[in-house]
Amino acid sequence: MSVFRDDFLWGGACAANQFEGAWDVDGKGASVPDMCTNGSHTNPKWVTTGIRPDRLYPSHEAIDFYHHYEEDIALFSEMGFKTFRTSINWTRVFPNGWETEPNEKGLEFYDRVFDCCKKHGIEPLVTISHYELPYALVEKYNGWASRELIEFYMNYCKAIFERYKDKVKYWLTFNEINCGTMPMGAILETGTIKGFEGSTADVPDNKQERFQALHHQFVASAKAVKYAHDNYPQFKMGNMICFITSYPLTCDPADVIANQQKMQITNWFCSDVQVRGEYPSYMKRWFAENGITILQQPEDADILKEGTVDFYTFSYYMSNCITTHKDTEDVGGNIVAGKKNPYLKASDWGWQIDPIGLRYTLNEIYDRYHLPMMVVENGLGAYDVKSEDGKIHDSYRIDYLRQHIQQMAEAVKDGVDLMGYTPWGCIDLVSASTGEMAKRYGFIYVNKFDDGTGDLSREKKDSFYWYKKVIASNGKNLE
Ligand code: BG6
Question: The domain 9-472 belongs to what CATH superfamily?
Answer without folding.
Answer: Glycosidases (3.20.20.80)
